[in-house]
């Protein structure tokens, strides 16, 4: 059953298959000597990005939640390789603007998503440690650091919330008395898509790059037929539910809440959609990235 509110089974079958092919082609290209060594780190980082896009696309398509964890090894391999290559290419200023949550709102959101996916999918400890090493930013944010600390108690927790909009609502749910947590979590999820658009403006530090909204925000509106859309999922809420045991009963069935991540054995939390075209089977394969194969990782 398709989980995303946009796209039918034919759409998702086509673009999920294309996503796997795209990753395979990119890995083949990465084997060849870089034509532009200065671009090589970003090219390999894009392979990592393709992996988390593909996890979310498979979720949107209605694939089993068990299809998602096999993408983590390839994601980590590519991100680590991008960092290795970037160490000799990116200037100290570029390193800061690429990695700092304070000045890179997109990166903060992506890190929140990956932490949420890692928690919900219960990735192995070695993958979790590699993910945290890549994420960095320890002690920077009172909310995301606390979410991470739920699995890594040694994590230093920041004192301030970097982006009060929209994440003030989620922090309020986490800190609320048990009897009001469910309603406050529902308020966060219900307002998330609207408020995340301009959340960068709520930060105390100026952004490294001026932009109107997160990079993925309009993918369902622009180039939809070209397959850019991978869903609009509030993975941050799932991260908090998994980390703190929040009651998410009032969020089940909401358009942007990926509740099936926490219920891999079903039944689905998403409303049933009328399907005209039956879904084509999509087979998931364990994704061991090129760098992992090269280094003998699994």
Automatic annotation (TrEMBL):
The protein's superkingdom reads: Bacteria
**Transmembrane segments in this chain: where?**
none
User: PoNi N-terminal domain: which residues?
Assistant: 3-132
Signal peptide positions (record) = none
Which residue numbers delimit the PoNi C-terminal domain? 140-261
Q: Which Pfam families match?
A: PoNi_C (PF08929), PoNi_N (PF08928)
Protein name (database record): DUF1911 domain-containing protein
